[in-house]
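Private note to self, pasted from the team thread so I don't lose it. C-alpha cells:
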C-alpha cells in the first residue's frame, strides 16, 4: 500500500495490489503510547489489574499505586515526582477515579524526554482538537494544569495529545479492564463506518489489520470509524 493525502481525507492509504480476504494489510508491533481508559477505577499502571486496598502498593517516589505483583513504574512516575509538590495519593478504589484521566497524556508528555522521535510521530497524528468541543478534552487539560507544574508545556500541546488519543485510540481487550493504545501505522488509515478491514491484537499488544473483504488495487484501506461524534457504527 502507499500513503496519500488530500484536503478531504487528509492522510490515507491506498492498495497498490489486489488484496485477498484475510490477508494482513499492516501490522503495528508496538503502540506509540498506551495507558488506562479515561476515568477508569484505580488500576495497576503496569498490568491494568483493578486495584483495591489490599493489593495496592504506592510508589515511594511518585505515589501512583501498582499491584503487589508488579514492580516497574512507567513514564508517569518521573513526570509526577518532578512536577508535583506532593506524591499522588489514591485512597478510594472500586469506582471511576478522576486522577486516571491524565495518565496516558502525562505518559505522552514524559516520552518527549525519553524518545523524542516517537513523541514526534505521536504529535504528527490527526487530533481534530481545533474542530471538536469535547468535555473529556477540556476536563483532562484543566486537571493536568491544576495538579502538575506545566508552565513549560503549552496548553495547545496537551489539548492536541488528548485529541489524538480520542481520534486514534484503540481499546485493547487484552486486560480486564481493557486499556487504550495509539498505533502509528494504523492511525494513517482512513476511518470510516463502512470498513473493508478488520483488526486483531497480538498477545504482546501489537495491532494487526486484515482485509475483511477483497480489496482491489487502487482502493482505500479503511477500518472501522473511531471519530468523535460518529453515531452510525
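Design output:
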Amino acid at each position: 500500500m502507499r500513503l496519500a493525502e488530500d484536503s478531504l481525507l487528509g492522510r490515507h492509504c491506498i492498495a497498490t495490489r489486489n488484496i485477498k480476504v484475510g490477508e494482513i494489510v499492516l501490522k503495528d508491533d508496538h503502540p506509540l503510547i498506551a495507558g488506562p481508559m479515561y476515568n477508569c477505577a484505580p488500576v495497576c499502571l503496569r498490568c491494568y489489574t483493578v486495584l483495591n486496598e489490599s493489593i495496592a502498593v504506592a510508589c515511594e517516589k511518585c505515589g501512583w499505586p501498582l499491584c503487589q505483583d508488579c514492580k516497574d513504574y512507567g513514564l508517569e512516575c518521573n513526570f509526577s515526582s518532578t512536577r508535583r509538590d506532593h506524591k499522588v495519593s489514591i485512597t478510594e478504589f472500586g469506582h471511576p477515579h478522576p486522577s486516571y484521566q491524565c495518565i496516558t497524556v502525562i505518559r505522552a508528555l514524559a516520552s518527549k524526554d525519553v524518545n523524542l522521535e516517537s513523541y514526534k510521530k505521536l504529535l504528527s497524528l490527526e487530533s481534530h482538537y481545533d474542530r471538536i468541543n469535547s468535555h473529556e478534552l477540556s476536563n483532562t487539560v484543566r486537571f493536568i494544569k491544576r495538579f502538575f507544574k506545566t508552565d513549560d508545556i503549552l496548553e495547545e500541546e496537551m489539548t492536541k495529545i488528548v485529541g489524538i488519543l480520542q481520534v486514534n485510540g484503540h481499546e485493547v481487550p487484552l486486560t480486564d479492564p481493557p486499556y487504550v493504545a495509539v498505533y502509528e501505522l494504523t492511525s494513517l488509515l482512513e476511518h470510516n463506518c463502512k470498513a473493508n478491514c478488520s483488526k486483531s491484537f497480538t498477545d504482546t499488544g501489537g495491532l494487526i489489520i486484515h482485509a475483511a473483504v477483497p480489496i482491489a488495487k487502487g482502493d482505500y484501506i479503511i477500518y472501522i470509524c473511531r471519530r468523535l461524534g460518529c453515531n452510525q457504527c
